[in-house]
Amino acid sequence: MPNDWTVTKIVVFCVPIGLLLLAGIAWVLLRKTVRTRLRVARQLRDDPDINEYLVVFDWSRKVLYVPTILASLTAGVLMLFFAPAGPAAYIVGGCWLAVFFLNFLIDEYELSVKLIFLILLALLLVSLWLTFLGWLTDVLRAFGHLRVAISAEGYFVIAGIFLLAIGISFLRGLFYYVAITPNYLNVQTGPTETGDQINHTEYGTRIDTGDFLERLLGFGRLVVTFRDQRRAPLTLLVSRIGQKARRLEAVRGTLSLDRSVPPPSQTE
Predict the structure, then answer these.
(1) Cα angle 223, 226, 229; round to 5
(2) CA–CA dist 31, 50 (Å, integer)
(3) 112-147 b/e with 16+ CB inside 10 Å = b?
(4) Could you give the count of Cα atoms lying within 13 Å of 15 in the half-sphere of its Cβ?
(5) Does the pLDDT value for residue 70 go beyond 50?
(6) Are 197 and 209 in contact (CB under 8 A)?
(7) Longest dimension (CA), the chain
(8) Which positions ≥6 away from 170 have C-beta within 8 Å?
(9) 3-state secondary structure of 162
(10) How far is CA 58 from the centre of its chain?
């Protein structure tokens, strides 16, 4: 330790190390009782009685900001290594703002193909109207005066915030997930065995890909409804929705019977 360190500095330095040690001890003690999504998927894959299964969890909607994250990292690298200033920096900032705005629309609104077509048609009509009046150039010049310029550190911080939210969502999905097999649906709500197992006749499923832009990013919603009206439906934001939809069809179209052990042969 440096000679000028006080007791407070030593305590602050040791706190993260102590937390890591506690986390390691907790993992060693609880690793046999923790039922993560990955562990359950492996168990279902190795089960000889189950040919089809699906394990999914609810992503945070911040995962839809992956284009913004990529744009932020790209802009950060450009600002860091090329250090553009003036108009060049404004161009980088303007492109980043455009990507963020499109992501905001995807996150905030459910845009179907029909609605997107109507929006594009409205923009075209407004542009023609402004052109006829001679105001289009002035409007575009007004947007150019925004002069959005962010430092490389700022872009990296923005990307880090979104990545942190997505990472937390992934970690939560290790313990809060849904496992679907031909015979039952298991709703897991904790790190151990806490959860509900529901018979395949007591629930229904459907895939919702009504948001066109969301679907372009590979996401959709898996909706689970229950025969028991007291149980609220589950709506999960799922990645690789095309693949998950095909697997769900295979699961729901299969009925798995428990393998029975034949009685031992008897001799006279």
Answers:
(1) 125
(2) 25
(3) eeeeeeeeeeeeeeeeeeeeeeeeeeeeeeeeeeee
(4) 5
(5) yes
(6) no
(7) 105
(8) 59
(9) helix
(10) 7
Give pLDDT tens digits for 90-112. 888 888 888 898 888 878 777 66
Confidence band, pLDDT 50/70/90 cuts, at residue 267:
very low
Task: List the beta bridge partners of residue 221.
Answer: 208, 237
Contact in structure between 58 and 173 (CB atoms under 8 Å) = yes
- In a 13 Å sphere around the CA of 259, the CA atoms on its Cβ side amount to 6
Distance CA 221, CA 241 (A): 8
Cβ atoms of 213 and 116 within 8 Å: the answer is: yes
Q: Give ∠ CA 225-231-235 in degrees, rounded to 5.
A: 45
Distance CA 54, CA 52 (A): 7
The model carries a pTM of: 0.71
